Aldehyde dehydrogenase family protein
Amino acid sequence: MAAPTKTHTNAPGHWIGGEVVPGGADRIEVTNPATGEAIAEVPAGTAADVDRAVAAARAAFREWSATDVAERAAVVQRISEGLATRGADIAASITAEMGSPITFSRKVQATMPVASSAGVASLAADFPWTEEIGNSLVVREPIGVVGAITPWNYPLHQIVAKVAPALLAGNTVVLKPTEIAPLTAAILAEAAAEAGLPGGAFNVVHGTGPVVGEAVAAHPDIDMVSFTGSTRAGKRVSVVASDTVKRVALELGGKSANVILPDADLAKAVKIGLANAWINGGQTCTAWTRMLVPAARHDEALELAAAAAAKYTVGDPADESTRIGPMSSLAQQQRVNSYIERGVADGATVAFGGPGPVEGLGTGAYVRPTIFGNVEPDAVIAQEEIFGPVLSVIPYSTEDEAVEIANSTIYGLAGAVFGEQDHALAVARRLRTGQVDVNGGAFNPMAPFGGYKQSGNGRELGRYGLEEFLEVKSIQR
């Protein structure tokens, strides 16, 4: 395999065949949502740029797919280590690009890619690359060239969750990162080159979804598309990819319910529930945006939530004390504000926040974190993904009704249950969703991550995420 080479990727550009490619004259500004100032530019890629990247990935596939699994795992592990050394740069970039508070960027945005890639690398030795079933030898082989299309809310984590297992499986990758927060893709490219990944095994083409995303999904020489983003965009990827019958993996939206049972510690459940509703400013697909509480304790839960919310400082994401920064863009700010206004118009009780500008923050894409009470289960704010710091508290009468409400949306990505442990586990089994946290169970980067219904298909992370990027062949003897 080619020796690692030191490559500088500071100049914004595509990354194709192991080198920076400037791209054409058309550029996309990267804007700091806290200030509205442009902080960088990336090229507005074209279908021709995708063609070039796919050709590089196809050419690299022969060498990389034939590389011993142990060496592929070593490269992925070195990528993880390279990202770990760049933690401060990763955190600063994400805070500037999309507004994650700097403390969250350091603790989560910069560390999750390190953990998930190291975890994937550790699977190689014991993974069943081959097995025998009767007279058949079953082998797992790389799919080929993988197209990855990723979002802005966890810009590097969502990239690495696809790229690390795809590379370990022996695939090569063409990535279209979000144009809103694209800069950490260059950090990954540099880390991959230093780790000894052959040129062409990992490629980056910047651009918009309608141009570059569509070209990736449609490309006849891309064998699989792994997409994370909105359900609307995921449906479009599926349609475009269907013409070439390529494999499609989708991780889409969510409207997760936090079911607080009568035997729960209400104060604990509300505090943890609010934290998970407003994580990353609510710009998280798994956010617990619906809090389901026994009707008799609704007002008490609302008071507890409002008291906890008062501690969530809104402000400059570069400030160490900030807990909620701006939304990722002015467009996202407008979207969230429109939902807050809709909640008021539909008659929900405003227990905290509400419509209007954030006091003292006239510049930037800020919104007022909001808690609604007495929300009807079928209300717009209880059914549609808002992707901002907006919590809907919904009363229920019986456990069966709570489960019915929890399962009543088109989504099924995540959720939570609080209560006596065995009771809560029993209710968790009834939720039609891909992940459920019981009594605040911690996120596990090695557990399968993905959704039911219109939250997508397939799984990411750990062994299940690795299996997504493999074909299965049976050889009869």
About this structure: The mean pLDDT is 96. The chain has 16 helices and 20 strands.
